[in-house]
Every structure is written in C-alpha cells, then in structure tokens.
C-alpha cells in the first residue's frame, strides 16, 4: 500500500504543478523580480520612420483562396511604413485560385512552389529570397492589429531578444461555438504564462499565428518539423537569445469549427511537442542552460509528456487505494474525480448538441487536451518523415 500511496501522490503533484503550481511559482518569481527592480527600461521607437528596420511580413499559404481578400485588406491597414515593409506570400503546392487572386496585388512578392513539402520547407523557400533583417511570420487566416509590426520591432530593441511572439486571440463566429470558446479560454491562460515567462527570462516558444525573428540569429527548423514555429524560436533560445512576448501585437482568428477539427490541431501539436522535446533535450541540462531548464520543463516538457500519463494513472491508483481502505481522503478524492469526469462528459454532450455551458466545457477541454497527447503519439509515428499536415477547418 505504501508504494501505491507514493505513486498516487507523485502523480497528483505532477498534475497540480503542471497546470496550477507552475503558474503560482512563476507569478511569485516575477513579483520578486519587480520588487527588487530587476526590470529593463522599455525601449522607444525612433521618431523618424526612415530609421525603422526593413521588415518582411511572410505568409505561408496552402489553398487559401477564400481568405486572400480579407487578409490583404488587413495588411493594408498596418501602420508600418510601406517603403520599409515587404509583404511576401509563399504558396506551397496550392491548387486553387490563391495565386491568381494574389496577382491582383502588385505590392506583394509571390514565391511559389508547385510541390507541397510542408510549412517548414515553405518558410525556407521564402527566406531564400528575403532581404530584410527582421521577418514576421503570420498565417493567412489570422488578422493583425494595426500597430502589430511597430510593437514587434520595439520588442526587438530589447537586449538579447532575437525572437518576438505576439498574442493569439481566438474568436467564436457565433455564441455557443464550444470548440472556439474552449480554445479561447485555454489561450487566455496560456498567454498569461507566456507573458510571465518572458518577464522572468524568456518565453518558451512562439506560435505561428504571429512571431518574428532576427535573421542574424535565425536557424532553420528540420524540414519534417511538425511545430516549425516552436522549433525556430527555441533554437534561438538554445543559442542564448531570448523570446520576448507581447500582447500589444496580436493575431485574431476564428476557433476550430468543431471538436473534431480541434482534435486535428491538438494531435499535431502533441506530436510536434514530443518531437521537439527530443530535438531540444539539451535544454533540460541545468548546467548548460540553468535559466531555461526550469521554464522549459515546467511549461512544455511535463505538459507534452509525463503529466497526461500521471493524470490517467490517478484513476487506477485511486481505485486501488479506495478498495484497500487506505483512508477517508482517498475516498473523497475518488468522488471528486468521478464528479470531474462527469462534468467533462456533460460538457462534451452539450457541445455535441449545440448547447452552451462554459464551465462544463472547460472541464471537457482540459481532458480533451490531455487525451490528444496519446493520440499525438500515433500521429507522430505516421508523420515523422514529413512536416505536412492536414489543416483544421476554422469556425
């Protein structure tokens, strides 16, 4: 029984620390840093726009004919000076009218590859003709705020920063779109952690919806990377540079159309997370990367590997301890576990029937994310040689 108790408490501690404890510790460390004045002065952009660096805004696209017009309208409202900005579309194997539509916009640079090799390969193709010192990557279906590029450039002025991650904001196309609302709640929490990570030392990775790199320090992700954006940003951290996170530069997009479409994303992210952990395993050496070690393991490694297993293991461990009459606590905790899984089931059932209950859906979405880690293992085995992946339909 002693062994079962030890395993139970280890699993419980892992789950608690990964999803709540790390946030508490991170908040406390950031507060201490502020208290003792270890904060850098915020840089200011030059008053003369001609002194701003040249920036390339790169959109890697595959069959995006339905969004080209809206995306270009969004790009035209960006406040960055036109003579300092190159807008580059890289169409990777597109078979629809994307290229024909883009031909109506003379201000863009179009880079086309007839073969679909994946986003990482498309990025490399675009960068082979890039001449700007800063490249901002964004997706075709995400809309940027007007000041996004100026804010990214301002963040690049901070010492040691070679990558900037903008904020992802998820919109629901209509009230009660459960998949989008669940994704939106998750990203609000994730954005808070990224902001605190960045303030403590460095954000642990950037999301492809909006991030920027300084080409002087850029390293390509492996061509079969499933999370190319994460790998590109973390390779910079591995080389001693920092990722700045800012909520003042943000990309808005609609959430997944439904739970099935969201599962496509989560499986790929889980698979890419496991793939990235292996490639970045040297960051888990506290002697070589003492500052990154704590943040990388706490924010990424546990969530993508051990903790989902611990969450699942709590079920049989708890049942065994209840049957062995280990104590009242274990009985109460088992009742709480049953209540949680019932809540998650109700959240799923209501979403399937088009009804809204945000509280119930949060429980389901939490469980849904962890279950997709296991599905991601199978996904990784079938996609380990290719960075291509199926797009999830948005709301």
Walk me through this protein's architecture.
With 395 residues, this protein is α/β, with parallel strands linked by helices. It is 52% helix and 14% strand. It has 12 helices and 8 strands. Strand 1, helix 2 and strand 2 form a beta-alpha-beta unit. The model has no long low-confidence stretch (mean pLDDT 89).
Features:
395 residues, alpha/beta, eight-stranded mixed β-sheet, 14% strand
Tell me the β content.
5-15%
Using only C-alpha atoms, the radius of gyration works out to 22 Å
Helix content: 40-55%
Record field, number of beta strands: 8
Roughly how many Å apart are the termini? 49 Å
Mean pLDDT: 89
What are the low-pLDDT stretches, counting only 5+ consecutive residues below 50?
none
The backbone outline, from C-alpha atoms, is: globular
In short:
The protein has 395 residues and is of the alpha/beta class. It has helices at 2-35, 68-76, 98-102, 119-127, 148-156, 178-200, 228-238, 259-279, 290-304, 306-323, 328-352, 358-383; strands at 55-61, 85-92, 108-113, 134-138, 143-144, 161-171, 210-214, 242-254.
């Amino acid at each position: 029984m002693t062994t079962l108790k030890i395993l139970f408490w280890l699993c419980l501690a892992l789950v608690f620390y990964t999803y709540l404890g790390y946030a508490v510790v991170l908040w406390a460390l950031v507060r201490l840093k502020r208290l003792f004045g270890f904060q850098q002065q915020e840089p200011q952009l030059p008053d003369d726009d001609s002194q701003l660096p040249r920036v390339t805004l790169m959109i890697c696209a595959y069959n995006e004919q339905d969004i080209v017009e809206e995306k270009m309208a969004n790009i035209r409202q960006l406040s960055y000076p036109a003579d300092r900005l190159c807008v580059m579309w890289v169409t990777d194997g597109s078979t629809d009218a994307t290229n024909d539509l883009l031909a109506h916009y003379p201000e863009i640079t179009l880079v086309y590859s007839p073969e679909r090799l994946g986003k990482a390969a498309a990025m490399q193709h675009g960068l082979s003709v890039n001449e700007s010192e800063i490249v901002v990557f964004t997706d075709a279906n995400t809309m940027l705020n007007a000041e996004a590029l100026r804010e990214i450039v301002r963040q690049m002025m901070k010492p040691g920063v070679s990558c900037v991650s903008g904020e992802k904001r998820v919109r629901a196309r209509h009230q009660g779109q459960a998949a989008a609302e669940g994704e939106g709640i998750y990203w609000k929490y994730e954005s808070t952690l990224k902001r605190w990570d960045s303030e403590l030392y460095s954000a642990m990775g950037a999301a492809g919806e909006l991030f920027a790199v300084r080409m002087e320090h850029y390293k390509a992700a492996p061509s079969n990377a499933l999370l190319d954006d994460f790998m590109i940003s973390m390779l910079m951290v591995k080389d001693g540079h920092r990722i700045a996170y800012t909520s003042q530069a943000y990309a808005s997009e609609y959430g997944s159309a439904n739970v099935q479409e969201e599962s496509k994303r989560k499986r790929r992210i889980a698979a890419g997370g496991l793939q990235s952990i292996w490639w970045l395993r040297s960051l888990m050496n506290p002697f070589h990367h003492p500052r990154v070690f704590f943040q990388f393991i706490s924010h990424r490694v546990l969530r993508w590997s051990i903790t989902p297993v611990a969450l699942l293991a709590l079920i049989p461990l708890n049942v065994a301890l209840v049957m062995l009459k280990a104590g009242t606590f274990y009985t109460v905790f088992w009742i709480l576990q049953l209540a949680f899984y019932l809540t998650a089931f109700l959240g799923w059932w209501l979403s399937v029937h088009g009804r809204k209950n945000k509280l119930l859906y949060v429980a389901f979405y939490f469980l849904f994310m962890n279950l997709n880690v296991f599905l991601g293992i199978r996904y990784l085995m079938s996609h380990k040689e290719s960075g291509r992946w199926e797009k999830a339909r948005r709301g």
